[in-house]
Design brief:
This protein has 12 helices and 10 strands. By secondary structure, it is α+β, with helices and mostly antiparallel strands. Strand 3 and strand 4 form a beta hairpin. Helix 2 crosses helix 11. It starts with 16 loop residues before the first strand and ends in a 9-residue tail after the last helix.
């Protein structure tokens, strides 16, 4: 896997904020919106957009990919669950480093997405805006002078921007603080979702913190508000972590070493358990507890590598649950250096 990928960057492992993302929803004026567009018009629209975007991106032959490869793209945040479910003709354009992608005919005709490691939301916004400007210079968007960019879902109308931080919040999750802050941030037009966005569950205590309101706010207003909300959550997470470290019982350190031991020596392990253990190991990294000085990759990269799609893609074949659990354990032993790794395989 190329070291240029955002999730390989060490910035993904230095704070509770794993990554920053900006998505822009756009529709082309000459085509019906996704809810009523025909397959024929969909193919024409996708073909026209691919022709333009091929000047900057490499087309992904999505239809020819295996189910594992498609799932792996979701797990690496290159596509959305909605894109996987979409039955009409669609297209995907992507930069080689997977930091920028464009989904065609998802919920809207065009979904531009840019991701940056860590808290660098400005870089994500700059990348997304550059692609947006390029498209708008060559194709006419559905735009209203009063309402802004017109989208399939009314909540995206306006800027069409969804900005988010992917945040690792294990202490807030364990103590119940996450439930307590949700009503207050909702009042300000922000929300907390699962690891793959709306309608998904958190894994390994990783959540998405994003804006809900796009109409009547500028892009700068949305980003400023997101930084403020996420900053407050990071402060709470850090305080809870410091309090747990100060506990004389040693439970905090013990759970980190136990997690490392299981990951290094297990023979079979499910995805949910592995994610929980990796969450504890990442928590240890943030406070300088590293049972193994060096591992190959970031903790978040490992979190994606052990998901079903990426696991099967790497193995080169479809696996049942039992085989996946064994393959996952084998992979983790290799990462964390269990002395028995590889024996008896």
């Amino acid at each position: 896997m190329s070291r240029d990928m955002w999730y390989c960057d060490e910035k993904a492992d230095v704070s509770p904020i794993v990554s920053s993302r900006v998505r822009l929803a756009r529709n082309l004026r000459k085509y019906p919106f996704q809810a009523v567009i025909s397959d024929e018009a969909s193919r024409e629209m996708v073909g026209e957009a691919v022709g333009l975007l091929s000047r900057r991106f490499e087309p992904v032959d999505f239809d020819r990919k295996s189910e594992s490869e498609k799932r792996a793209l979701l797990e690496r945040h290159c596509v959305s669950p909605e894109f996987l479910r979409a039955a009409k003709p669609k297209g995907l354009m992507m930069r080689r480093d997977e930091r920028v992608s464009v989904m065609l005919n998802e919920e809207d005709h065009v979904r531009i997405q840019a991701i940056a490691p860590g808290e660098d939301i400005e870089s994500a916004w700059a990348d997304a805006n550059q692609v947006d400007d390029f498209i708008e210079e060559n194709m006419e968007y559905a735009f209203d002078r009063d309402y802004g960019y017109l989208t399939s879902c009314p909540t995206n109308t306006g800027t069409g921007m969804r900005a988010s931080f992917m945040a690792h919040l294990p202490m807030m999750e364990k103590t119940g603080h996450l439930r307590n802050v949700l009503p207050s941030i909702t009042k300000f037009g922000y929300t907390i979702r699962g690891i793959y966005g709306e309608g998904t569950e958190p894994l390994g205590s990783v959540y998405q913190v994003s804006n809900q309101v796009t109409l009547g706010k500028s892009e700068e207003d949305i980003l400023k508000g997101l930084r403020n909300v996420a900053g407050q959550m990071v402060d709470i997470e850090n305080r809870l972590r410091e309090r747990a470290m100060a506990d004389a019982s040693g439970d905090f350190e013990d759970q980190i070493y136990r997690a490392f031991g299981i990951l290094a020596y297990s023979r079979k392990i499910g995805a949910d358990e592995a994610m929980s253990l990796l969450s504890n190991v990442r928590l240890g990294y943030l406070v300088g507890i590293r049972p193994k000085a060096e591992i190959n990759g970031t903790i978040y990269q490992i979190m994606m590598d052990i998901q079903p799609g990426n696991l099967q893609w790497r193995e080169g074949k479809e696996l049942d649950e039992n085989a996946r659990d064994a393959a996952r354990a084998r992979f983790l032993r290799g990462v964390f250096g269990g002395t028995e790794a590889g024996k008896g395989e």
